[in-house]
Specification:
alpha/beta, 2 domains, three-stranded parallel sheet, 6 strands, 8% strand, globular
Length: 189
């Protein structure tokens, strides 16, 4: 049985369209490269939507004495010092900018009485530092990232959903979609 196949050429392929995948695709596109985004389901049906608590970021909106250093210390203590310290440090330093970036892109966070992003207590954090949208922060993150991604300057192949099933005619190059990518990475269904 003959099938028709489409071939898409991209500089960067991002596998997964959850929060991390969408943000990676947005950043790659901002660098001027062609991006193919592969997701196994409908755009928006990612596990990121299940994140209810909030985004830990030392914005200092509730406790001005909070800082990335305190956040870093809380993260290392919470991980019993087994964390990759450099990743924990980068997270603590970058988180405030990423929250403000989401806000610039349209995320609607809960607010303090004076209009700043409200932060609440959570887990082993010394200060209230979770920026949140009620109990649906993950849903707001996905909505914001999707809206921003689809507003990127349109170029063919810039950002698209590629169905993840099937095989195409192969010439040794892996370019037929998610099924072949899974096999290349050694992941079996």
């Amino acid at each position: 049985m003959a099938r028709d196949w489409e071939t898409h050429e991209h500089d960067v392929i991002v596998v997964g369209a959850g929060g991390a995948g969408l943000r990676a695709a947005i950043e790659a596109a901002a660098q001027g490269v062609s991006v193919g985004l592969i997701c196994k389901s409908l755009l928006g049906k990612a596990h990121t939507v299940m994140a209810e608590g909030g985004i830990a970021a030392a914005l200092g909106n509730v406790w001005p004495e909070d800082s990335w250093r305190v956040h870093f210390r809380d993260t290392m203590r919470g991980g019993k010092m087994l964390n990759n310290w450099r990743m924990a440090q980068l997270h603590a330093q970058e988180a405030p900018d990423r929250v403000l970036e989401l806000e610039r892109w349209g995320a609607l966070f809960d607010r303090t009485k004076d209009g700043r992003i409200l932060q609440r207590d959570f887990g082993g954090h010394r200060y209230a530092r979770l920026a949140h949208v009620g109990d649906r922060t993950g849903l707001e993150m996905i909505r914001t990232l999707q809206d921003h991604a689809v507003r990127l300057p349109a170029r063919p192949g810039r950002l698209r959903r590629v169905p993840g099933e099937g095989r195409g005619p192969g010439d040794g190059r892996n370019r037929q979609g998610l099924g072949d990518h899974l096999e290349l990475l050694g992941v079996h269904r």
